[in-house]
Structure formats: structure tokens, C-alpha cells
Specification:
By secondary structure, the protein is an all-alpha fold. The chain contains 8 helices and no strands. The longest helix is centred in the middle third of the chain and has 33 residues, at 77-109. The chain starts with a helix and ends with a helix.
């Protein structure tokens, strides 16, 4: 039953997650943390961080990780692997199905005023969903014990440093490596 819930949740995320991975974060967070309570907000923040630094789309990476975590609750690594496959397949299925169905017609309709208007209308929604995901990570609204805000003064300092580094066009890989090193020094002192 848990694997079916996982499949349905990620199928819903795949169907209604417009705008790519970052725009999908609020929907993923709502399903995984708020609705089903499969993990805490802090665990979800860890998933987001891991999904951002691993190759591939954030939605698929997070689906694989959440699927493994939820599947493992059923009985170990074998179920974890099954959960990963179920969640990853479910989040990819809508895109695959829609692309096959729409690909033939989109090339003919891409210059249509209605289609163009719909695409333009979705742009601000995507920006709003990305902002909502950021706010949900900063201000968790769950009352679960141990589900605390992971943002502290050091997090803001690292955020500010990375923003300045990005603005000054510092190599993103260097920024990630320096942030990881700073996190180890700050949060896990030797």
C-alpha cells in the first residue's frame, strides 16, 4: 500500500510540476513532508541539497532518494530499491506520455497565439512556485517533533558569501566545494 501511495504521489508531482525541478520543490515538499510525513523538513532539505549536486534533474534525483527512503521503511535495501524505481518511474511517466502525445502537434501549434499566451502565462507561476519552495525550506510549517528550521546565522552567512561569489562570477564548482568545506568546519568541528 505504501508503494502505491508513493507511486500516486510522484505521478501527481510529474503531472502538475510545471517549470522544472525547482518549481516542483513546493509540490514535492507538500507530498513528502506535509501530506504523508515520510520525512521531516530537515531531511527534505538534505534531499534538496543532494539532488542539486548530483547529475540529473532535481525531481528525478529526489524521487529516487525519497523512494529509497520510503521503500526501506517496508523492509530493508531490497524494498528501498523497489521504492526508488517506483517513484522515479512515476515522476517520469507523465512527461514521457505527454511528450509523445504533444510532440506531433506542438511544432504545428508553437506559433499559435493561444499556445504562446498559455506559455507566457505560466512563466510567473513558475517563478512563484520557486519562491514558495524557498520559503517552505526557510520557514517550515510542520509541527512534528524534531522538525526544526535548518536555517541559522551560519547558513545566512554562507548564503551571502555564495551570492557575492556568484555575482562576482566565481566558478560554481569552487563555490560548492568551499561551501561543503565551510559546512564541515562549522557544523562538524574536529
Amino acid at each position: 500500500m505504501l508503494l502505491l501511495e508513493l507511486f500516486v504521489s510522484y505521478l501527481k508531482i510529474g503531472f502538475f510540476g510545471f517549470g522544472g525541478g525547482y518549481a516542483m520543490l513546493s509540490l514535492i515538499q507538500n507530498e513528502v513532508v506535509v501530506r504523508h510525513a515520510w520525512m521531516t523538513n530537515a531531511q527534505f532539505a538534505d534531499i534538496v541539497a543532494i539532488s542539486q549536486i548530483t547529475p540529473g534533474p532535481i525531481a528525478i534525483n529526489s524521487a529516487t532518494y525519497v523512494g529509497y527512503t520510503v521503500g526501506s521503511q517496508l523492509g530493508g535495501a531490497a524494498y528501498g530499491l523497489l521504492g526508488s524505481v517506483v517513484a522515479t518511474f512515476a515522476v517520469c511517466l507523465p512527461s514521457l506520455t505527454l511528450m509523445i502525445a504533444v510532440a506531433r502537434f506542438f511544432l504545428r501549434l508553437k506559433d499559435n497565439r493561444l499556445v504562446e499566451g498559455a506559455m507566457r502565462g505560466m512563466r510567473p507561476v513558475v517563478v512563484g512556485m520557486i519562491a514558495a519552495a524557498a520559503l517552505l525550506l526557510i520557514f517550515p510549517h510542520s509541527e512534528a517533533p524534531g522538525d526544526r528550521n535548518f536555517i541559522d546565522a551560519w547558513s545566512w552567512a554562507l548564503f551571502g558569501g555564495v551570492m557575492i561569489g556568484s555575482w562576482r562570477k566565481v566558478n560554481p564548482i569552487l563555490l560548492i566545494a568551499l561551501s561543503a568545506a565551510a559546512g564541515i568546519v562549522i557544523y562538524y568541528p574536529f
